[in-house]
Amino acid sequence: MSDSIVPVKEIEEKMDTDKMWVIMGPQHPFSHGLWTLKVQLDGEIVTDAEPIVGYLHRGWEKETESREYPKIIPMADRLCYCASMTYTHLYCMTVEKALGIDIPEKAKYIRMVADEVCRIQSHLMWLAAVGTDLGSYTVFLWSMREREFFLDLNVKLCGARMTTNYPRIGGVRNDTTELFDRDILRAVDRFEKALWDIIALIDDSSIFVSRMKGISFINRETAANIGLTGPAMRGCGVDFDIRRDDPYDNYDKVDFEVPVLKAGDSYSRYMIRIEEMFQSCEIIRQGVAKIKALGKNAPYRVKTPSKVPAGTAFARLEDPRGESLMYLVADGTDRPYRLKVRSPIFTNVSSARLQSVGVRIADVPAVLAQIDMCLGETDR
Amino acid sequence: MGELLDWINFGSDPMANAYYPFDSYNLPFDIGYQLWEILGGTIAWLIDLIFPGNSVSTWLMCDAVSTLLALVVFMLLIFLVAFVSTLIVLWEERKCLGRMMDRRGTMVGMKGFLQCVADGLKTFQKENVVPAKVDKMTYMWTVSLVIGVSVLVLCMVPLSSRWFVVDYDTGLLIIMAFFALAPFFILVSGWAQNNKYSLIGGMRAAELMISYEVPMLILICTTALMAGSFNINDIVYAQADSVWYIVPQILGAITFFTCAVAEAERVPFDIAEAEAELVEGWQTEYAGMKWGLVMLADYMRGSVSCSMFVILYLGGWTLPFIGDGPIPEIVFLLKAYVVFFFMSLIRAATGRVRTDQILNLGWKVFMPLSVFNLVIVLLLMTGGVI
User: Fold this and answer.
1) Nearest C-alpha of chain A: how many angstroms from B103?
2) B140, B273, B143, B293: which is closest to B202 by C-alpha?
3) How large is the ipTM?
4) What mean pLDDT is predicted for residues B180-184?
5) What are phi and psi of A167, to 5 degrees?
6) N or C, which end of chain B has less CB nearby within 10 Å?
């Protein structure tokens, strides 16, 4: 613009074109949950952003210190409503590690299958959110319809839809119910077909693709340095998955691939989650076959002492959103001395500034949908 | 004292009236005129019964007063039909969208049609909230004008050669001019609301307008060129005489349809009220009935967009081989609903485009396409094909 007749710079200085802070949240259609993103706008382009979380802080970690170990299980469900089973599973795993016990094979497989069902539920919830953020209500409703089949599987397994209260310290609450393996295979087969419909709706539409492709690049080093985990990190080219690289339960006994894309843009983070859903279906199939092979009368739970010996233990697992970790300090009583939760979203959301600076305000929801916010675990 | 039938002139010809306001036969005016003949005749007879030989009765039945009061009925009739057809459009979209999204759509009475009534009642009962720090005057008159202009343009669309409000030689241009007014008020309204979302929404409405308005006008001019007139009647009958203009102008029809979606501010071009990032865009601070009417105005604009498409490309109210037919109004509305079905389809299938994308689309795709369409039409016309 140097040879322009209009002195743009001078006019801008004279007109005092301030940048504008727009506060998106906590009651905003794009913030799925109670959080705020302050964005600084220069026209339509975001020049600065600041995520603010903490509106949903319930003192979860402190509350656990006044409860006996088994009574924390239903509380752990409430950490994340989309994938409640993973947090309960993580908590039980941590306590089992502190107790130094090994749980029956069958319980491990059931937990693994339940985890993957939850992963699909959570990813479908994310897909629904991406749909509304990009302006399509059809994607939202179709994803929610598919999610319903997996919620029904939860009901089949343990009687509840979302807050399941199913894993126990030393195993799971009950064996798989009658015909569960048949139903889950049916649901998975059906889902794989239905997911292609949704993919066709999104990927064949240049509007959706152009809203995601080539936007908000994060390179591999940055992703690793700021501590992104989960699909968001794998979409940036970091090849790491706890299920494969530090296997817990029986993940080392099933075959699955960890999708990794090097592009690092919003679209690759989207593709990773879609691919993960297909891989989850594979894991579910193998897990169900293993459960069936173990027979009907295989043990699924061991008795555990109510008091945990003094010491520390931590366990981590691959949450649908990233790496979640619990760190337990036990003092020999029946209540934890301290229980620390590492939430993947709390770390991932700190990359909001990195992701949204430079994009247009219309793309802010589309980009931040790839974080897959879940406030229950973020604020604890 | 005369008989009742002396005062009521059944089947009197409105066109014989000295003050008849139109050039040709107008059905709604005729209905209004006949209604007034019966109603006014009865009133005149009653007055004459009580005060025999007064002059008020004859004054009521004179040409000028009959025309004036028939015009009132005429306006009500035009508005009512336009309003109900908009409600049908609303219902159609809800039902079609429901089926496309694998749900049932609205379910309140009459296959879901009464949902419109329920929505109207609900928004009507809501508190009329006016935020403390808005510019109250501007806040109110802009929204009134957005709604008013939408209603006006909806009523101005003719349903047939006998169902119209005005029959100017520049009718098409007048409708398009009124149609393009709303974004200005949206811009001012976004400014007046003292809300950053509204401000961005209003600016986007202006941004949207500059991207589709020019190609749209070029397309309209192309059609006018083919028909040799800006008069809607002439355009429709020119198509009835030769061929529906969607055949020679298929490119133009597709471009016009996309522009019409943008004109009606519907998905994928609803960037002025993009709810994902701007809450409700320029409508954020409007509550209760104001919001309800703005919503209805959106559908009115959608309905007008479809009607314009039908007039320009689908032969208006005529049918091939049949011509006008007995009820051309129904034919016209049905065609508009079919076009609106495709708008619903687009809404179900796509997401929202970005502001820079729509500017690119408008100037780099629509603009060349519309000019290309014009060139094709010119070649066809000089070649003597049409």
Assistant:
1) 8
2) B273
3) 0.82
4) 85
5) -65, 150
6) N
